[in-house]
Amino acid sequence: MLDRATGALRRLGRQCIGAIWRLGYASRFFAAVLMRSGTSFRRFRLVIKEIYFAGVLSLIIIIVSGLFVGMVLGLQGYETLQRYGSAEAVGTLVALSLTRELGPVVAALLFASRAGSAMTAEIGLMKATEQISAMEMMAVDPIARVVGPRFWGGLISMPLLAAMFSAVGVFGGYLIAVVLIGVDAGAFWSQMQASVDLRNDIVNGVIKSVVFGVTVTAIALFEGYDAPPTAEGVSRATTRTVVTSSLAILGLDFVLTAFMFRGA
Amino acid sequence: MENLVEIKDVSFAYEVRPVLKGINLTVPRGKVVSIMGLSGCGKTTLLRLIGGSLKPTRGEVRVAGQATHELDREGLYALRRKMGMLFQFGALFTDMSAFDNVAFQMREHTDLPESMIRDLVLMKLDAVGLRGAQHMMPSELSGGMARRVALARAVALDPMLIMYDEPFAGLDPISLSVIGDLIRHLNDALGATSIVVTHDVQESLKIVDYVYFMSEGVVVTHGTPDDIRKSDAPFVHQFVWGEMDGPVPFHYPGTGLARALGVPHA
Questions:
Q1: Could you report the per-residue pLDDT of B190-245, keeping only the tens digit for each?
Q2: Beta strands B32-37; B210-215: pairing state
Q3: Do residues B12 and B6 lie in contact, with contact meaning Cβ atoms separated by under 8 Å?
Q4: What CA–CA distances, in Å, run from B23 to A15, A197, B56, B205, B213?
Q5: Which residues on A lie below 8 Å from B89 (Cβ)?
Q6: Tell me: the pLDDT tens digits for A229-241?
Q7: Complex ipTM
Q8: Which contiguous run of DSSP H or E holds residue B246?
């Protein structure tokens, strides 16, 4: 009985030490990415290429999802608000939901699944096929040449995708509430304009999307760079990217929201 | 003759598992030297120590007079700019064409104009017979062609030392012969020094000047290709002539067959 308890305690301790070690390793990796970002700025076309892969190629999924989320908000919002005779406020509900929460959060979750997993798999496979080792043997720093541009590409893409998601979502809400149900267009837009605040809603939403962009991209790149160079290793790393990023986004969203909107 | 690479009493272990145990080896300038041995005997580890990717747990590796384990990152990168390496399966960058793979180092390390890079890349690709494949992506190349493009990339900056990690692995007889000839001719044409890590005995004995034989982390014998062919050391003889049984047993150690099959009193 005592042996079991000490065994379990030892395993728990080992897991805790392992987790702390990995967190420290990830922090050092992240610091190295930041310190060796000079190449990304000197040769900005490398970053532009990554913006294309991480951002432009994610546009379809972001636009389609944004449209549907906005349409659902329009339907649900109208259904609830018309009970209280304030159906015109549906524009406000759609816009605030999207800019404060759903735009940054859902876009980041989609970004993690589409671009984050692709980054992890690409870097993991580069490692498995010795492309990273080849680069090091050619005296080219893979953190500066491969990881840095992807980090900045992801960081720049994420707020733009979140903004696109929110904009398309508002349009989706308009389609349902105004075009389909017949809410007055003037009331829809004017109530939205009156209640959405640039500082409290838009800027805070943008800050969230930047934080999520850093988080998702850093996790994806670290998992890819740290992946064991085997098919199984890359597959596990890709799964970890999606799971860890999703949990980190939701956790950080709560923390950020608590700080941003506590007095609003 | 001056040695470009000197390995003195080098030992190396992955955590607690020893891989190299007191290796001594020299590679004279201008020569093609082969390091042979069974899979897992520490050949590739030795190559990584020479390239500075790993640090020895004991002893020292000197390349062009510099101890690789004493160099910082900048120093190591400066040394690596004078080295070329061909990886086992080429390790070509899969998102770049054959042309861009060969041009990669030129673009990273030099300020040459694009027109000059183009001429140099075409000359390197021509040297390996693949000028016509310059626009092909790695996924469109056969194994032998990929290895040749990787070879052109390895010699892109006319290195003083070229390292080959299993350059003959998985090639058809024609590609094998082509790669073998290229290793020899590029070494002589560039005035370079080459280290070929391989277990392909017959092909490498045709092209190298000197051979080191490794087994279980130590150098068991060394000599010219003729010395190796005539060697009567049991391990070398078994390896060179591909004999099924010898110092390296056919059966992995285990319990007797009869016992494993549960035959009583066998």
A1: 899 999 998 888 888 888 999 998 888 888 888 898 888 887 777 777 777 777 66
A2: parallel
A3: no
A4: 38, 71, 11, 22, 11
A5: 129-130
A6: 999 999 999 999 9
A7: 0.83
A8: none
DSSP per residue, chain A: -HHHHHHHHHHHHHHHHHHHHHHHHHHHHHHHHHHTTHHHHHTHHHHHHHHHHHTGGGHHHHHHHHHHHHHHHHHHHHHHHGGGT-GGGHHHHHHHIIIIIIHHHHHHHHHIIIIIHHHHHHHHHHHHTTHHHHHHHTT--HIIIIIHHHHHHHHHHHHHHHHHHHHHHHHHHHIIIIIII---HHHHHHHHHHH--IIIIIIHHHHHHHHHHHHHHHHHHHHHHHS-SSHHHHHHHHHHHHHHHHHHHHHHHHHHHHHHSS--
Angle, CA of A225, A57 and A99, to the nearest 5° = 95
- Tokens standing for residue B264: 């009583």
- Copy the structure tokens of residue A255: 């923390």
All residues of chain B having their beta carbon less than 8 Å from the beta carbon of residue A140 are 104-105, 108-109
Q: Which residues of A touch B105 (CB under 8 A)?
A: 138, 140
Encode A43-68: b = buried (16+ Cβ within 10 Å), e = exposed.
beebbeebbebbbeebeebbbebbbe
Q: DSSP label at B252?
A: P
Q: Say which CATH topology domain B3-247 has.
A: Rossmann fold (3.40.50)
Say yes or no for a CB contact (<8 Å) between B109 and A136. no
**What pLDDT, on the 0 to 100 scale, is given for residue B1?**
60
Would the CB atoms of B91 and A141 count as touching at under 8 Å?
A: no
Q: Is B207 exposed, middle or buried (0-12, 13-18, 19+ CB in 10 A)?
A: buried
User: Token pair of A182, please?
Assistant: 């017949």
Q: How do the domains of chain B map onto residue ranges?
A: 3-247
**Domain extent listing, chain A:** 36-260
Which helix (H) or strand (E) segment holds residue B31: the answer is none
